[in-house]
């Protein structure tokens, strides 16, 4: 989602949540993973699917992506 390389911190995200019958996973930074789940319900994620550009249409996510873009790959901070 953020375009930064993945380093040692890694989590697997279900673009379509398991609760909505999603099976596939994609690697994401933990901070990005928390941001996704802080801004979308499982139903919204099921409709969006595996399209990071649609995630970035959300103003809060777009602001986050702009902020995180120049941080190191293993950067971590608390998520609101």
List the helices and strands in order. Answer: EEHHHH
Radius of gyration, in Å, reads 12 Å
| Main beta sheet | 2 strands, antiparallel
> How much is the average pLDDT?
92
Give me the count of strands. 2
Number of helices: 4
Strand order across the biggest sheet? 1-2
Cα end-to-end separation: 18 Å
**Overall shape:** globular
Oligomer: single chain
Strand content: 5-15%
Low-confidence stretches: none
Keywords: Endonuclease, Hydrolase, Nuclease
Protein name: HNH endonuclease
Organism: Alteriqipengyuania abyssalis
GO molecular function: endonuclease activity
Features:
80 residues; mainly alpha; two-stranded antiparallel ribbon; 4 helices; 39% helix
SSE topology sketch:
Elements: E1 11-13, E2 26-28, H1 30-39, H2 42-48, H3 52-55, H4 59-68
Antiparallel strand pairs: 1-2
Short overview:
It comes from Alteriqipengyuania abyssalis. A two-stranded antiparallel ribbon has the order 1-2.
Q: Any overview of this molecule?
A:
With 80 residues, the protein is mainly alpha-helical. It is 39% helix and 8% strand. The protein has helices at residues 30-39, 42-48, 52-55, 59-68; strands at 11-13, 26-28. Strands 1-2 form a two-stranded antiparallel ribbon. The longest helix is centred in the middle third of the chain and has 10 residues, at 30-39. The protein is globular. This is HNH endonuclease. Keywords: Endonuclease, Hydrolase, Nuclease.
